[in-house]
Backbone:
């Protein structure tokens, strides 16, 4: 990855609805090739290291926290917070900067949102760099939150289900929804930490205690868990498999696209990236043999930077 960028060249806020105001920042070259970074979760917010996937001399690097995430306000708000609200927000950010067309970069939920945005506004997307493909199908949610990843991380799974009474464990996403929306603060925070810890404990090939520690900060866990769960109980506000439908892919087939996928990604397993390649053979798909889900895994980060370097000169 490129060296850390500790200070953006510009930060600001953008009011996008009666309720929501987004935090954004610009790094790199203010007159450079524009790229927008779409973070994961949903609800995960941006991290300063996300600036380093891009050559700062070539790119105008635009990061923003999606509704309710990171520094956007109100924190963890679920009102007017849907996939299609976020797609409209991306257009509002683009128009705010007076950009005609930009590159789009997203991993995990960020890949979901990148696909939804590109299929809604294909003429605004110069290229796509995607990581850990997630299309929010019921089968994907079932694998990670009900019966799949649980067989690979039994210790972390035991902690995740301990939060839920046995009689409610047949639908973990729904059971967590009740606790994440409880009127009792303690219940809400405990559920948010347990939900977030499950994801952070399974996001890397080698479990990273520091990475997990981030999940247990109240502010992060609250937004991450509540917003993720809200989207999942609503099936991402999409038809099951919508983003992979051939008529949807036809809208973006022409867009240069590179996908980087960890072989041992248990959060967003490689099967979805493979399905995307089957329906969209024009994409370049890299499956990294020694990586899990995180964009910071060495093999994944290296190929992501190779991809952004390639597209900078498009
Ligand atoms: C199912 N959600 C996976 C996702 O989008 C995601 N995983 N980790 C993240 C952060 C890096 C933003 C914490 O997002």
Residues:
């Amino acid at each position: 990855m490129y060296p850390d960028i500790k200070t953006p060249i510009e930060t600001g806020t953008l009011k996008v609805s009666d309720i929501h105001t987004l935090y954004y920042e610009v790094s790199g070259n203010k007159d450079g090739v524009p790229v927008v970074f779409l973070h994961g979760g949903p609800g995960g917010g941006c991290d300063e290291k996300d600036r380093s996937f891009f050559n700062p001399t070539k790119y105008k690097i635009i990061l923003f926290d999606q509704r309710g995430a990171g520094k956007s306000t109100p924190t963890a708000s679920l009102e007017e917070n849907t996939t299609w609200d976020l797609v409209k927000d991306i257009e509002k950010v683009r128009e705010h900067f007076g950009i005609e067309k930009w590159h789009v970069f997203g991993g995990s939920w960020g890949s979901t949102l990148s696909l939804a945005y590109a299929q809604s506004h294909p003429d605004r997307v110069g290229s796509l760099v995607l990581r850990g493909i997630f299309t929010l199908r019921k089968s994907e949610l079932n694998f990670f939150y009900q019966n799949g990843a649980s067989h690979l991380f039994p210790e972390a799974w035991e902690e995740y289900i301990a939060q839920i009474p046995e009689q409610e464990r047949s639908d973990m996403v729904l059971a967590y929804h009740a606790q994440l929306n409880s009127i009792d603060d303690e219940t809400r925070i405990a559920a948010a930490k347990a939900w977030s810890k499950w994801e952070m404990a399974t996001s890397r090939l080698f479990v990273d205690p520091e990475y997990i520690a981030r999940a247990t900060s109240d502010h992060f866990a609250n937004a991450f868990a509540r917003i993720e769960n809200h989207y999942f109980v609503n099936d991402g506000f999409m038809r099951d498999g919508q983003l992979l439908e051939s008529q949807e892919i036809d809208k973006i087939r022409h867009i240069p696209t590179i996908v980087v996928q960890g072989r041992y990604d248990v959060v967003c397993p490689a099967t979805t990236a493979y399905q995307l390649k089957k329906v969209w053979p024009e994409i370049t798909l890299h499956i990294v043999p020694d990586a899990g889900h995180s964009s910071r895994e060495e093999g994944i980060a290296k190929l992501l930077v190779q991809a952004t370097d390639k597209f900078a000169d498009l």
